[in-house]
């Protein structure tokens, strides 16, 4: 792992790194209060704006706890952290399985955390800055306020982004989302569909935007005019898929097929269709990205594009363990095995 440098070179001489007193002076509080806040002491009696002021001051002046510096130089925790945005999401379960393979080979353990549970910077510093992990894998999901935390974590431990291209100084490992959506659209077009909708993930998700780009390109290449109402924002859970499909069903002309950004969201899409008396695939064909375990057990079984989620998790963990993340930012695409269309009973030619 890379060692966090504790010296600042100014005009050819070494200056001591910032200490607690410097943070306290910047924040206008006592050093003892700074120490307790940065340790994540939940019993400390301090207003929330004071906590934020201390954390901001520490970040501004580049303060790093002395114990952290010693840990980075001399020891390893034997643990890699994986941060996801919903630990119950089965898509992330496959990523976890792959990451676990690489981590176990290295003689370490994998700790999984939900991003929503570490929104407080003090809590994040306990994990990333307290010597508890040797590095972090961070699954990006498009939640700007949560994904911003990764930049805080990267000041303390090596970080590799999962299911993301590189961002700033951070290496990212991602899948071929464009090709996946291209295969899905090709299948629907070959069946004869022209009125095709798209249900995305959360607004701002780069994964979702890559899939949306392929969706739009496929319509253009087929000479089909896209209606804005066919392209709706969703999320990453079944409820968001249900709401998105309700909006899509109100669009005119009504779509005969829909590409859904992932299989979890597709469960909500199919549920909303049935609630509206729209039968899959007789009235509506549905295809989704990712072949999760339940996809073939839905009614009807879901047509999907299979992507190598486990391989991506394993590759991301290996990059972190091999210290490749410290060699400079890179976008690493997991191209093998290639995206694969798995045709099941949720797609059929449009009814005439």
TrEMBL record:
InterPro entries: HTH_LacI (IPR000843), LacI/GalR-like_sensor (IPR046335), Lambda_DNA-bd_dom_sf (IPR010982), Peripla_BP_I (IPR028082). GO terms for molecular function: DNA-binding transcription factor activity; transcription cis-regulatory region binding. Residues 18-74 form the HTH lacI-type domain. Pfam families: LacI, Peripla_BP_3. Keywords: DNA-binding, Transcription, Transcription regulation. CDD domains: HTH_LacI (cd01392), PBP1_LacI_sugar_binding-like (cd06267). The keyword Cytoplasm does not apply. This is DNA-binding LacI/PurR family transcriptional regulator.
């Amino acid at each position: 792992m890379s060692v966090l440098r504790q010296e600042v070179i100014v005009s050819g001489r070494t200056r001591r790194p910032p200490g607690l007193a410097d943070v306290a002076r910047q924040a206008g509080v006592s050093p003892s209060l700074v120490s307790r806040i940065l340790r994540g002491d939940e019993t400390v009696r301090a207003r929330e704006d004071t906590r934020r002021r201390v954390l901001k001051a520490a970040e501004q002046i580049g303060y790093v706890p002395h114990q952290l510096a010693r840990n980075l130089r001399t020891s390893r925790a034997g643990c890699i952290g994986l941060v996801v945005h919903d630990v119950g999401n089965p898509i992330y379960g496959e990523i976890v399985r792959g990451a676990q393979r690489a981590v176990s080979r290295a003689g370490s353990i994998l700790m999984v955390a939900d991003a929503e549970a570490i929104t407080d910077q003090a809590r994040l510093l306990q994990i990333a800055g307290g010597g508890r992990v040797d590095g972090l894998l961070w699954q990006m999901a498009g939640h700007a306020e949560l994904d911003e935390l990764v930049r805080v974590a990267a000041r303390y431990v090596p970080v590799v982004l999962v299911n993301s291209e590189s961002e700033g100084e951070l290496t990212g490992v991602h899948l071929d989302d464009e090709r996946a959506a291209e295969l899905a659209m090709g299948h629907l077009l070959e069946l004869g569909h022209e009125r095709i909708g798209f249900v995305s993930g959360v607004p701002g998700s780069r994964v979702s935007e890559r899939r949306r780009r392929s969706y739009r390109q496929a319509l253009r290449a087929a000479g089909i005019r896209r209606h804005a109402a066919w392209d709706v924002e969703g999320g990453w859970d079944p409820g968001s898929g249900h709401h998105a499909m309700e909006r899509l069903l109100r669009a005119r002309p009504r779509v005969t097929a829909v590409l859904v950004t992932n299989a979890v969201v597709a469960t909500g899409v199919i549920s909303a269709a049935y609630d509206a008396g729209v039968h899959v695939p007789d009235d509506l064909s549905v295809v989704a990205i990712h072949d999760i375990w339940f996809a073939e057990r839905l009614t009807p079984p879901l047509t999907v594009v299979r992507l190598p989620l486990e391989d991506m998790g394993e590759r991301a963990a290996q990059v972190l363990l091999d210290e490749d993340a410290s060699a400079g930012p890179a976008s690493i695409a997991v191209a093998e095995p290639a995206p694969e269309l798995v045709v099941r009973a949720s797609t059929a030619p449009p009814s005439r």
